[in-house]
Amino acid sequence: MDIQHMVYFVEVVKQGSMTKASEKLFIAQPTISKTIKNLEDELQLILFDRSKKSLKLTDAGKIFFEQCNEIVNLYKDLPVVMDNLLGVKTGHLKIGLSPIMNVKKLIKILADFHNCYPNITYELIENGGKTIEQSIQIDELDVGITALPVDDRLFQSFPFYEEELKLVVNKNHPLADKEKVSLIQLENEGFILFNENFYLNDIITDSCKRAGFIPHIVSKISQWNSIEQMIIAQIGIGILPKSIIEMLSDDVRSVSIESPSIVWQLGVIWKNNKYMNFVTKEWLHFMQKQLDSK
């Protein structure tokens, strides 16, 4: 067994298919299949349950994957670690973020960090909070920004910022000129929400239930500008963060919500009990220091 065998195995698990893994690694599928078989023979263990339509890890396979994934990540980080020992602060940081967050807050801190470490590069990946958590769990992301709280058995976190959620309606909607509305007043409205991958969907739905009704959802979307266009077309109403509302057109109006008001808190999260490379450590330390100084 060598590191390359572990790389192949980890990629098969992440892709859920030997075919997809071979395409991702630019390796012939028979090579991948033979490697997995050789690993099972060497370990004298079955790593995959092949009775299913898709590849599923056995209990032994799950344990082997956790260990292999850790070793592969250490191996990939080795050149960066050595550079950093020599004082050349390099590396790559993968950050998952919500497309409905106030990205200006993040970019300001990122710009200051870049000034301190100009040789570090970044990859910002927008997605719903639930996908961000899954990506961190399988080491496709280093850190994420998503709604708090999170499962502290899986993640560590610290708060980023809190923001009010407001009602958004067409400018000709009967509630458009109101200063405030109670949530129960929206009982008979059609809601345009984000899809189930977004924790904002859960926050709004749960708030409506606590107010005494289940929201009538006419559409679920993954982009806030699509929600805006559907509101302009008078298909329904939306509830969005204040920072997003500031970017909307004059064809919509925002109204504060009370009884109860709705807020969401975003936080920075990373995987619990995991080896952390230099870049991620420095970024988390820098970001927390910046937030604490404000």
TrEMBL record:
Residues 1-58 form the HTH lysR-type domain. Keywords: DNA-binding, Transcription, Transcription regulation. It comes from the Bacteria. One of its GO terms (molecular function) is DNA binding. CDD domains: PBP2_CidR. GO terms for cellular component: cytosol. Belongs to the LysR transcriptional regulatory family. NCBIfam families: trans_act_CidR. This is LysR family transcriptional regulator. It comes from Gracilibacillus thailandensis.
